[in-house]
Amino acid sequence: MLARLREAVDESEGEEKFGFVAAPIKRLPRQKTRQLGILRKAGRGFTVESIDKKDLKEWPVLNGDLDGAVEGELVRFETERDPKLGRPAARVTERIGHPRAEKSVSLIAIHNHGLRDRFSEDVLGELDSLPELTPAHREDLTRIPLVTIDPHDAKDHDDAVWAEPDPDPANEGGAVAIVAIADVSFYVRPGTGLDNEAALRGNSVYFPDQVVPMLPEKLSNDLCSLRDGELRPCLAVRMTFDRTGKKLSHRFVRGMMRSAAKLSYQEAQAAIDGKPNKKTAALLDTVLKPLWQVYGLLKEARGKRGPLDLDLPERKIILDERGLVERVIVPERLEAHRLIEEFMIQANVAAAEALEAKKSPLIYRVHDAPASEKLVALSEFLASIGINAPKTGFNRPNQFNRILEKAIGTEHEELLNEVVLRSQAQAEYRPGNLGHFGLNLRRYAHFTSPIRRYADLIVHRALVSAFKLGEGGLSDAEKSRLDRIAETISTSERKAMSAERETVERLIAMHLAERVGDAFQARISGVTRFGLFVKLADTGADGFIPAAKLGRDYYRHVENMHAMVGERTGESFRLGDKVEVKLVEANPAAGALRFDMLSDGRFSPSLVKAGRKRNVKSGGKASKAKPKRSKRSSK
After folding, report:
1. Which residues contact 540 (CB under 8 A, 6 or more apart)?
2. Fewer C-beta within 10 Å: the chain N or C terminus?
3. 424 CB neighbour count, 10 Å cutoff
């Protein structure tokens, strides 16, 4: 609606006063919206089926507006009013490909979130005129046997580690360690096309079938990848620790290094466990055992620091040659993973401390303390499963850890880890320091992955400038807009996480589409007034059960108990309950799965009481459920 505003004149007493009054001029045409969908044949015409799992709709396609697309293709379309019928209709504007084609599942997320998956010719052209590397003004680290330890399928290697007991008699029982990181800041200079593109991307995005990198492959997989045996520029930090694992000092240098070996986590761990292969046998005594010895000090210090210790296994999708799901696994969490994680944390802390000491601007990785309302909800939930929360509230990570320890080995263990995770604030990037609650650190900055995170590149540039390490430092223009850069890359990170999660959901839905009608073991992972979210035990797939499919009662949502409670029977379904469900619908394009409940609910007097109390206080709404069939007939 287009309107003319005029200042309001106060002509009455005791009535609500307004600053302006709007006079309508004309109704504006409805704005077109661009979406993604699947083209379907419908009678003599076509429809477009939305891939948005939160709003699954269909629109008839206006005659002749197919843009050459064929049935089953993923398309971008605009919605507008059909001029003849006045109803919403679709017009295809772009063909993207068939959802079942190789790498097309991730293309849905790429297009849906507007991810930049192509480098322009201008940006790629800059790769032919990169700065020429010379060893001048660089410290020679080539004689130090730094090694990279990464996933077995990693294509880029941007961090290397080395450690040994400190030979200084004044630091008996102490240790020294070096973390060397690919010197991306030397090649990617502020204000260049490469830099502008990296800033817009913010980070690399990792899908099961492909990677959308922050930097072109010549940099990420070649010049800035710490390949074993090849000379590479690096930005390194040398850290000294005492016998308790406390860091005594650190020093940043720009150097030249040559990785002594490229190892996988599994290779390094197997060597330490007494099963070295030909490559790790040559490194066992001189490189790997000293690394583990120093890690022992850092591990002890970590234990005293008491960071948040959540145990949430991550599932990994294994694809077949067609790019479809072959199986879903939970990779084993090895001590080698924890070793690299702790070395990287120490390097990140050193970067933040070093820049603060120089009064240099930087971008911190911050994690605020949990919001008070989330802590209240957590305390109520803990009480409902018989765990008493600290009387003084949760203000330190180790208080959460003590609660988590109480649930180890119980039916609530996995659930409680998830509930505690949900109570936490979201980590983000900021030019101002808030500390990192989860790691229990006063200051923290990302330094260790400049190939895949723009925040790390900014920190590298700040270190180069602060310590006068040569060219490629932080520019004045960047210093003046760190707040905007931090906000942009925080948004990019959230967008990447959503895109990665949605792609996994679509692949799993495609994998399960042929098993409609089958029964699965699951656990209730979310409770709302509209129904239950469940997570399948074998694949980790998420799906929804409408409240009407729960059982033979009217169900009330008892929010603080994370439960749906039957009004008459007292039958309840609660967050964390293990249940059996039947798959009744799979929408691969949207990544949506819908289930029916096969299991009976539990009876809990406390939940019944809570549900009735809620109903008296707030007139809580009930969800009407159809009579439930037996498991035998449901299958």
Report:
1. 315, 328, 508
2. N
3. 20
Calculate helix-pair angle for 397-406, 413-423, nearest 10 degrees: 160
Both 155 and 292 in one domain: the answer is yes
End-to-end CA distance of the chain: 54
- Is 292 within 8 Å of 339 (Cβ atoms)? yes
d(CA 310, CA 165): 31
Pick from 327, 564, 537: which is nearest to 414 by CA?
Answer: 537
Helices marked H in 220-366: 265-272, 278-281, 289-305, 335-357
Residue type, 538: D
Nearest to 572 by CA among 536, 548, 600: 600
Q: Do 145 and 235 share a structural domain? A: yes
Q: What are phi and psi of 268, to 5 degrees?
A: -65, -45
Examine the pLDDT at 364 and tell me if it is beyond 60.
Answer: yes
Q: Same structural domain for residues 168 and 310?
A: yes
Residue ranges making up the domain that contains 481: 135-361+447-485
For 67, 97, 319, 514, the CA distances from 73, given in Å and listed in that order, are 12, 5, 22, 20
Asked whether 58 and 52 are in contact (CB, 8 A), the reply is no
| 439 within some domain | no
- Residue 110 domain flag: no
Mean pLDDT of the chain: 87
Give the pair of three-digit tokens for residue 610. Answer: 């809570």
88-92, 111-115, 281-285: which is most confident: 281-285
Token readout for 567 is 């009004």
Q: Are residues 204 and 298 in the same domain?
A: yes
Return the exposure string of 108-139: e unless at least 16 CB atoms fall within 10 Å of the residue's CB, then b: bbbbbbebeeebeeebbebbeebeeeeeeebb
- The whole-number pLDDT of residue 25 equals 62
List 604's β-bridge partners, or say none: none
Strand pairing report for 571-574 and 563-566: antiparallel
Among residues 431, 444, 397, the alpha carbon closest in space to that of 303 is found at 397
Instruction: Please compute the mean of the pLDDT values over residues 477-501 and round it to a whole number.
Output: 96
Q: How many domains, the chain?
A: 3
Give pLDDT tens digits for 73-95.
Answer: 888 888 877 766 667 888 888 88
Q: Which of 400-409, 494-503, 551-560, 617-626 has the lowest mean pLDDT?
A: 617-626
pLDDT 10s digits, 548-572: 888 778 898 988 778 899 888 888 9
Report helix, strand and coil shares of the chain as percent, to nearest 5: 35, 30, 40
**CATH code for position 59:** 2.40.50.140
The confidence score (pLDDT) of residue 607 equals 59
Residues 6+ apart with CB under 8 A from 467: 252, 354, 358
Structure tokens at 339: 């070793």
138 or 382, greater pLDDT = 138
pLDDT at 84: 66
User: Is there a domain that residue 577 lies in?
Assistant: yes
